Amino acid sequence: MKKALFLLCAFMLFSFGNAQTKQNPEVPSPIIFIYDASGSMWGQIQGKTKMEIASEVLSTSINQLPENQKLGLIAYGHRKKGDCRDVETLVTMDNSSKGKVIAAISAIKPLGMTPLAYSATAVIDQLRKSKEKATIILITDGIESCDGNICDVVANAKKEGIDFKLHIVGFGLKSGETEQLKCAAKAGDGNYYDAADASGLGQAMDEVVTATIDKPEGNLGVFVLKDGKPLDAQVVAYAPNTENIVDRKRTYKDTAFLYLPQATYDLKVYQHDFGAVSALTIKNVKTFTDKTTYQTVSLDGAKLNFMITNNGELWDSQIGVKTLEGKNVIGGRTYAKPKMLDVDPGTYNIELYARTTNGHESTTSLENIKVGNGEVTEVQHDFKTGVAILGGTFGGDPFDVGINIVDAKSGKSVYGGRTYKKNKEIILSVGSYNVTLVEHGVYNASAKSSQFTIEIKQGETVTEIREVK
After folding, report:
1. Mean pLDDT for the stretch of residues 326-345
2. 134 in the same domain as 80
3. Are residues 144 and 61 in the same domain?
4. What is the pLDDT of residues 46-79, one digit of tens each?
5. Are 139 and 186 contained in the same domain?
6. Model pTM score
7. Of 5 and 415, the one with more pLDDT
8. Of 215, 248, 276, at which residue does a domain stop?
9. Which domain holds residue 437?
10. Region for 189 from its dihedrals, namely left if φ exceeds 0, alpha if ψ lies in -120 to 50, beta otherwise
């Protein structure tokens, strides 16, 4: 009897231990990808189809996942061109083979519609039956094309108590196309990520595959402003006084939530796209297990406001900002408008080039321009030019000649061109110039030509139509 009781207890302990292993919280919940295989994925970005880019980026992201991560894949629009029910489970969510998912993605050929709501319903139905929780990642390059509303589908599933987190990555979408997707991601307790190109998609996927349903909710919210407006910024949290990254998020002009176990951290915040303002480091940021704290960060820096004119009129000009040591900081183009550039406080040398003008003063340098923190420093320069109208004739008729203009003072060539039997209008800096007109296509001493000097005065036009001999 005692032996039987012992065996029974041993069996119960084994069964209990085995059950605990199956429910081990260290085994991650499934990630289910919903993959856009609509016809628009044949579109190109930087010389590659969106299909190729998405396949490569997803393969890289999937390969970085833990070995015990279960992965499912659903695709839409890949079998029938006009079918709003063309949604297929290619890999079930109990799969643990990365290679199986990658191979399935590589084999997809985009074709049809974009049934976002119906594809989300297909995944939710699977979770309803399995009673499992999961992370759903939807990658789409288009908006709903089948009259569904994915936001309503997700919100209703959440009310029903189905346990999932939905992230949506919009790939190459236009402004104004994302509202329903953002609504759905928010309703699904996830985030919407906007990816304009391969780099953006890679960054979004790196973040999204770590923000799973198993990860605790963020306990630090960071909102970044620039000039009082929400800024798309990167936020990176480090263990204090180290380069060890604990968590990182992109704000997408909204509050980014990081999960940081209760401790003290250093935050580095910087503008997501190109900018000359250095990253801002915030030391000793405290987090707590039982509450969410918030940080509002301003990345205003300093500003250079350019007003570049030609004879008093706003002019299309190139700008280069350098340190006093000659290191490039930032550049830009005015397009005949005022131009504001953000920089760190400091002292700079500035190079200006007036487009479509020629001559020794079409470029200029401004040295030791100082700008303080939070200040706007006005940078003004007026290029002074006149116009030369030049042409050649032979026997009194318009003649095709080459034009070479040399600055009379420095001896440097400032313009070369051709008339094609028409008079040529050339904008030149104020000064004296030696002009040579020479018969086009003849490269020896027999070429007909004419040489003369012109004087350019500010705002005036000089016309010289010369007979070549």
Report:
1. 93
2. yes
3. yes
4. 888 988 999 999 999 999 898 999 999 999 988 8
5. yes
6. 0.58
7. 415
8. 215
9. 385-467
10. left
pLDDT digits (tens, 9 = 90+) for 167-215: 999 888 887 788 899 999 999 998 898 888 888 888 888 888 888 888 8
> Do residue 195 and residue 83 come from a single domain?
yes
Residues 152 and 234 in one domain: no
